[in-house]
Structures are given as C-alpha cells and as structure tokens.
Amino acid sequence: MTERTAVAALREFAGSARFAQALTLIAIGLAFSTHAIRSLVGWPGLLAALTALIALCGVSLVARWRAVEWYGILPLTILVFVGWCAASVIWSATPARSAAGVAYLVAFTVLGVYVALMRDTIQIVRAFGDVLRLLLSVSLVLEVLSGLLLDLPIVFLGIKGDLASLGPIQGLFGSRNLLGFVALIALLTFVIEWRTKSVLRGRAIASFILAAGCLVLSGSPTTWIALGAALVATLALYGLRRARPATRRNWQLALISTGVVAVVLGWAFRVQIIEALDARGEFDVRLDVWRELSRYLNTNPLQGWGFVGPWPDRIPYTWIEVATGRPHESALNAYMDAYFQVGVIGALLLVALVGVALVRAWLLASNRRSVVYAWPAMMLVVIAVTSFAESFALLEGGWMLLVVCAVKAARDMSWRDALAVGAR
C-alpha cells in the first residue's frame, strides 16, 4: 500500500458515518460518566480522555467538511453565553481557575456541537438511548453488588449500598439527584425510541422498567417535580399535535397562560408541595446555600465572581461551605449559579439560552409530523425545571445535552421561522 493510498483510506475512515457514530456514543458516555472516570483515573485521566476525544472529533469534522451544513451552526445564545463566561476571566477572583473552567465548558460545548452536526435527531435519540441503557444497567449492577451481595459501600464511586432499604441509590453518578436526572432523561428517551419503533418492543419495555426503577430508587424529590412537568408537557404536546392548524395558535396561547398560572400557584403553595414530596431537608439545604450566596452577590451583582463551573476549593466558595457546614460543588440551582459566577447578565443569558431553545423545540414538536421532534422539547423541559434545584445544566453531561438540543432546534427552525409559525 502506497503512502497516498494509506492517506486516502485514513481519510475515508475518518469521514465515515460509522466513525461519527462511534464518536457520538463515546462523547455521550464520557459526558455522563465523568464522576466514575474521575473516581477511577482522577482529573488527569478525564482531561486526557476529553482532549483525545475532541481531537478525534476535529479529525472527523475535517474529513466530513463538505457534507456538513455550516450555515447557522451555532445559536447566538450559546455564543454570547460562552463568550460572557470567557470574558469573566478578566475580572474573576480566581482567574487561573476561571480560565480552566471556561476551557472545560468549551470542551463539552464542542462535543455537543459535534453530536448535533454529525447525527440527525433520531440517530441522536438512539445514541442517548444506547449509552444511558448501559450506564443505568451498570449502576444497578453495582448497587446490587454493594447493597445485596457484599453489603459494603463502594467508597471510591460514592455508592453507599442502600439498595436493601430501597435507596436512595447513586449508581455511577455520585449523587442520587444526578442519577434521578439521568434516569428521567433516559425514561423519556426510551419512550421516544418506542414511539418511533427504533428498538424492539421487548427492549423498549425492559429499558423503560430499568429507567423507572432507577428513578424511584434514587429517591430524588427534584426529579419527581421534573417528571411531573415533563408529563404535563407531553400531554400538552399530544393535544397540540392533534389540533387543527387553524386553532393551534390559540391553543399555544392558552397553554402559555396556563403555564404562568401554574408557576404562580406552585410558588404560592411551595411549602405544601415540599412537604408532600418529603423534601423539607433538601429544600433547607438549598435555602442555606442561596442565603449565603446572597451575602456575596452584592459585591459583584452585574458581572459575578468569574465563571468556574464546578466549585473549586477556593474563596468565596469555601466561605459558603464553612457557613453552611457542608461541601458543595454548585449552588444547587443553575440560574443562581450563573448569577453568582457571571452576574445578572450571565443569568439572563442562560435564561435566554434555555428559553429560546425551548420555544424553538416546542414549535417544532407541535408542528412536525414525526414524534422524534418531541425529544429535544422534552429534554429542555426537564433541564429548565431541574435547573431550579440543581446546576446540571452548567456542568458536563447536562450542559452538553442542552447544547445538543439548542443546536438541533436552531438548525431545524431559525428564529424567523419560529416567529412565522407562531403567527399562523
């Protein structure tokens, strides 16, 4: 084989759909397995794997350059938010840590953009389904091993071995809330797989039971609230997709009004809802963190303390941990986290990013015939609701999922198209 032939073969392999599919699976798996990878090989191993994966994605993009539609590649909301986070390095209280945090955010942004560019929506749903099936299965096996067979915690993974008492369990994800979040998006993904007949019926049923079991055993109150919101959104989409096009706009306006009323009522009866979900302890923890955050927000309300992503062991974050009496990796609220790290401007940019993406995805889901278009809308509903109690939307797999959904929604419907559809 000559050198030219070898180069041509390498280029053909790098530009193949199978290579892009493999990289998509690896990217999703890495993004949602960061806790397990760090536990096994530490930060150096995770960063090395992330760097190698981004390099391979770059090779794949170059090889498939002519096949990619580059117009409208990235929504303006993502560019502005990431740009503002990068600019915060200038005024950050910890500039070196902020630079590292921004680089980490950009890395998962690149992975999200790659997945959205290389695969169509049904392929992305299948990829997420395959990866999450594996991760939840491994999580459950480890919980059975720890809680039933050995009756010992797996300390380095953060598995406490509480399966015998029906949870809460953590699996590969290090916390019950993250496991609940992953189980919920997996549950919705498996439903879309079943509705699109992407997998056999038996596999779809088994996957649904697996995700539902992990969700219940996680014992995460925040996940139950997000599940309720997702179910309401699913019923609303079901009705909209069957409404006559002439009346669809009126139904959309009615849903918006109903949503506003639901939010107001939810806030008014928040105490009763928290007690009904037995989430008083969870809420008190978050309230303590947010109370301490407010003490330092007055110092830098407009621009924040500088983007860092996961909280480092440095001031002012250590001050908050000392005051609350426990370590924290985030503000337990993505919007509050953005407010604290990149100020009111950054928080508004994050709200705009999630909001614009959700509107686009919602209009697509309610107007396109294929049920697969409901997947980005459902994912964004879960992200938007969960972000009130967790910061997953700013971190690793949660951020990558947000980028994937935002990019797919923007490429399938620009803001001009969205306004045109909404005006019909």
Textual characterization of the structure:
With 424 residues, this protein is an all-alpha fold. The chain has three domains: 1-68; 74-118 and 220-424, no CATH class; 123-219, no CATH class. Helix content is 73%, strand content 0%. It is globular. InterPro entries: O-antigen_ligase-rel_domated, WaaL-like. Pfam families: Wzy_C (PF04932). Keywords: Ligase, Membrane, Transmembrane, Transmembrane helix. Residues 207-351 form the O-antigen ligase-related domain. It is found in: Membrane.
Describe the SSE topology.
Layout: H1 3-14, H2 17-31, H3 34-63, H4 76-87, H5 95-118, H6 121-149, H7 176-195, H8 201-218, H9 221-242, H10 245-268, H11 270-276, H12 280-297, H13 317-324, H14 334-367, H15 374-386, H16 396-412, H17 415-422
Helix pairs in contact: 2-3, 2-5, 2-6, 3-5, 4-14, 5-16, 6-7, 6-8, 7-8, 7-9, 7-15, 9-14, 9-15, 12-13, 12-14, 14-15, 14-16, 14-17, 15-16
CA radius of gyration = 22 Å
Q: Helicity level, as a percent range? A: over 70%
Provide the low-confidence segments as ranges: 418-424
In N-to-C order, the SSE pattern is: HHHHHHHHHHHHHHHHH
Oligomer: single chain
Q: Describe the main β-sheet briefly.
A: none
Indicate the overall shape: globular
Distance between the termini: 60 Å
Number of strands: 0
Instruction: Tell me the count of domains.
Output: 3
Structural class: mainly alpha
* Approximate strand percentage: under 5%
Helical run tally: 17
The average pLDDT is 85
Q: Short description, anyone?
A:
Helices cover 73% and strands 0% of the residues. It has 424 residues and is mainly α. It starts with a helix and ends with a helix.
